[in-house]
Write a structure and sequence with these properties.
Layout lengths: L2 H8 E13 L4 E13 L3 E6 L5 H9 L6 E6 L2 E2 L5 H8 L2 E4 L11 H12 L4 H14 L15 H12 L6 E5 L7 H18 L2 E6 L11 E6 L2 E5 L11 H11 L2
Parallel strand pairs: 3-8, 3-9, 6-7, 7-8
Antiparallel strand pairs: 1-2, 1-4, 4-5, 9-10
Helix pairs in contact: 4-5, 4-6, 6-7
GO molecular function, one term: ATP hydrolysis activity
Organism: Desulfobulbus oligotrophicus
Pfam family, one: ABC_tran
Length: 258
Amino acid sequence: MNTDIREHHESAIRFVDVCKSFDTRSKRHRVLEHASFSIPKGKTTVIAGGSGQGKSVILKLILGLLRPDSGQVLVGNQDVGTMRYKALQEVRMLFGVLFQGGALFDSLTVFENIALPLRERTKLTDDEIYTKVAATLEQLELAGHEDKYPAQLSGGMKKRVGLARALQLDPKIVLFDEPTTGLDPVMTKEIYELFTTTQQHLGYTAVIVSHDIPQIFTLADQIILVNKGELDVFADATQISCSSKPEIREFARMVMGQ
């Protein structure tokens, strides 16, 4: 099997020569400059970089919420950048998304928040929904909290509920957008452990956008650093300080102490 075919087979997502720019008042700001990389199936990829460098833009391109100026964003063998709405909605069924703030509905209980995707996107009966949600509550140590409202939950509990909801449609890929924002170090560590055990148990592909460096690197099977439109891909954190690029080595020294 040649390299291109093997990479296609083993990748959940591929960016092929992707460019993306936005207009500002003074000029056109290039966020991604001919970006090419692969996200391997069943693994955890961490996307890191400074504020405004395009980390969340990558997630939006993957979901088809933004379209590239040029290049391809492939989920499996499908180019989400050229899809019509109906086809794109079908592809989005492959994804679970844990948003930065959890994006829970304040007027719904924990149970109702978690059940929402099942009610909106499936034809399961109420009994089937109850059974599935109850199993997730148990798995994520939320049993006993199902009748609470988001305002009654700690920050860590809200993240658990957000993850529970993201997993309801049995996604092949889960996207995490700054998942530990607002959490203290102890709770952050607990949430990281939850992410690791859940991903290993269910086997989905995880893509985590985070500013929590270097702690977030402990979860990574692959690290993508985004800086001024360019991307650098590393198999693990130890490779970062050995980069041939001076700016990457400086990043490792300043942020990672390497």
